[in-house]
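Batch manifest, entry 17 of 40.
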Amino acid sequence: MLGFLIRRLGGAIATWFAVLTLLFFLFRLLPADPASLILDPKMTPEARDLLRRQFGLDRPLHLQYFLYLGNLLQGNFGVSFQTGRPVLETIVERLPPTLLLFTTASVLSFVLGAWCGRIIAWRRGSLLEGALVLVGLSLYTVFLPWFGMLILWIFAFQLKLFPLGGMLSPEVWIGEAGVISKALDLLHHLVLPLAVLTATMFAGSMLVMRASLLEILPEQYIMAARAKGLPERIVRDRHAARNALLPLITSFALSLAFSMGGGVLTETVFSWPGLGSEIVKAVVSQDFPMAQAAFLFLAGVVILANLIADLLYGYLDPRVR
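Output type: structure tokens
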């Protein structure tokens, strides 16, 4: 298991380094000139040259790359062209809301998907299976921004049950409200974006669990468990469902990568102040240091999730390691 861990950890580090390199050169191959965003047209030529040297924009591309690597090793991700703040400060400020939304949605979708997939696979051919499969396919293929705006229009604009956007109510958090009131306010803002992400991610988990369990049911050890006279619930939960979870773990890690892409749109639709909405603003304004660092952090989260899935897979299935 130690050798398996070392190989997977080395692969994760190499993948992150490859993503880092690809992002660096992709942003600098864009037709836009990053220097034009930080240079004032009224500046003197001397001031322009000085500012270019301070940001390292006067150096050849390969030297900029090695300078960027050296700064990363020191925890320096650069300075935002738009705000002038260190990029790392903005990421540290924006990352917790994104992690809160993604982590909660991922866990809920995994649990609900595994539970519903187990039920409908065991009741194959029933009306319940047909209804849930139809709902799952619809949610899995839905256009996420449209779905998010529809939910927002119904429950926030028409029914006025939830806020139209944001993460917090200023009047609650600036005032002398207690911890419970602040937590309820945060939950009130979290419900709609969390419901949209969970619904779209849950559909994939349910379908994968159903397909995996249907492949396992004809196996001989399931027939042997039934022949022993074990209750159907025991056969389903202790013998079939445990082995069917293995592909779902891999699907869970892969779905996290897709949910990151959808989460950028979800945060934009619901004005959620996370890293996804910051990426959109950085890309639109061509703030390369901010966009590059934000993409790098999201890539790191996805790679870490896949690493954990690999380790769990190797722990649960000796054939893998």
